[in-house]
Specification:
Belongs to the cytochrome P450 family. The structure is a single chain. It contains 16 helices and ten strands. With 402 residues, the protein is an alpha+beta fold. The chain has a single domain (2-401), classed as Cytochrome p450 (Orthogonal Bundle). A hairpin with a 4-residue loop joins strand 1 (27-29) and strand 2. The longest helix has 35 residues, at 226-260.
Length: 402
């Protein structure tokens, strides 16, 4: 029963969010073994106080790998802290090269490539009359984009993308030991692949994100130490995963919610000038990253609840974005809604440095779909099932026809 309850929560957390926002204080979620931070004001308070709410457990998954999986992972080079699991000076150190590497100028420079690849991918299935969008497009475009920014060779991108999904499955999704061991092997192979890139960029710097990370985290010359290699691989892997899985999820939910009611899609198709604000509404209405964990560093009072040091809290961006105290008609998906600040991409010190890149890819996707496939609609014979995860909320598959 506990597994069934957890699965139901992960696939549709919004009813629990609504209950928690109306309840006094914070609500404890047994399924997540954490206090749910559900209201917008409380979420923003946590994110403004990283000294009191540590990110050390931000990526705590719900599935502890068995010993055979841990043994396989020990063959890799990961395990070092990364930007989303660090605080203070360490967090600033890991974040700095990402801010530089994902600057507005970098995003503007890669936008023509995004548009070119979006058009090519959609044209590739435009004559078929039907498509499963997640596999044929939503997983492919963001992977190709982050691969290009990192400086990966094109032939390495599909392998890196698939291994990224295996990494997510290891800690955030259920599965048998055999499947988990196989996933761990793919993750280890990815780590060795990234290690090769890091060592080559040490000797031969280029104008790419991989070089940016290497020069920031391991300045100097000469062979990288084992510690430097582990740190570089961990942060490159985190950047790769965050750089495409979040965007993949947002593309999936954006298209889903626009097509749930044909009038929405018709309006967007006729009024492409609405699309930038529509992207914000998509992110607000169904945040791609629903929640991150935090750990209290001292006794604190939050939302009227006293928490001891070491208490686990689940900071629910998805719930904050449905808070009626912040957003009018919060449970309505409104393509004409004037953009208002939401927390789908975080807030404060840990705000996502790749948010603008994600926005640009979703904008270009919607513009290209509206132009090339104006008659797009959901396949009525293939109901949508959401993936059982809060970390990258997305349809498992999205079957479309036209």
């Amino acid at each position: 029963m506990a597994d069934a309850e957890r699965d139901a929560l992960l696939r549709d957390p919004y009813p629990r969010y609504a209950e928690a926002r109306e309840a006094p204080g914070l609500t404890f979620l047994p399924e997540m073994d954490a206090w749910l931070v559900s209201r917008d004001a409380d979420v923003r308070e946590v994110l403004r106080r990283p000294g009191d709410f540590s990110s050390a457990n931000a990526l705590r998954g719900g599935h502890v790998p068995p010993p055979a999986v841990l043994a396989e992972l020990a063959r890799g080079l990961g395990g070092s802290p990364v930007v989303v699991t660090s605080d203070g000076a360490a967090h600033q150190r890991y974040r700095a090269p990402l801010v530089r590497g994902l600057s507005p100028a970098r995003v503007a420079a890669i936008a023509p490539y995004v548009a070119e690849r979006a058009e090519a991918l959609i044209a590739g299935f435009a004559q078929t009359g039907r498509v499963e969008l997640i596999g044929a497009y939503a997983r492919r475009l963001p992977g190709e984009v982050i691969g290009r920014l990192l400086g990966l060779d094109p032939e390495d991108v599909p392998v890196a993308v698939e291994a990224s999904y295996r990494a997510e499955e290891l800690f955030f999704q259920p599965g048998g030991e055999r499947e988990k061991v196989a996933a761990a092997r793919e993750v280890v192979a990815l780590q060795h692949l990234l290690d090769g890139y890091a060592r080559r960029r040490r000797d031969d710097p280029r104008d790419d994100l991989c070089t940016e990370v290497v020069q920031a985290l391991a300045p100097g010359h000469g062979p990288l130490t084992a510690e430097q290699r582990s740190e570089l691989v961990s942060n490159l892997q985190n950047l790769l995963i965050a750089g495409h899985l979040t965007t993949t999820a947002l593309i999936g939910t954006a298209v889903l919610h626009l097509l749930e009611h044909p009038a929405r899609w018709d309006l967007v198709r006729k009024r492409p000038d609405l699309i930038p604000a529509v992207v914000e509404e998509c992110a607000r209405y169904d945040a791609p990253v629903q929640a991150f964990h935090r750990l209290t560093t001292r006794p604190v009072t939050l939302g009227g609840t006293d928490l001891p040091a070491g208490a686990a809290v689940l900071v629910a961006y998805g719930s904050a974005n449905r808070d009626g105290e912040r957003h009018e008609r919060p449970d309505e998906f409104d393509v004409t809604r004037a953009a208002r600040r939401h927390v789908a991409f975080g807030h404060g010190a840990h705000a996502c440095p790749g948010a603008q890149l994600a926005r640009e890819q979703v904008r270009i996707t919607l513009e290209t779909l509206a132009r090339l496939l104006p008659g797009l609609r959901l396949d009525p014979d293939r109901p949508v099932v959401m993936a059982p995860t809060l970390i990258h909320r997305s349809p498992e598959e999205l079957h479309l026809i036209w």
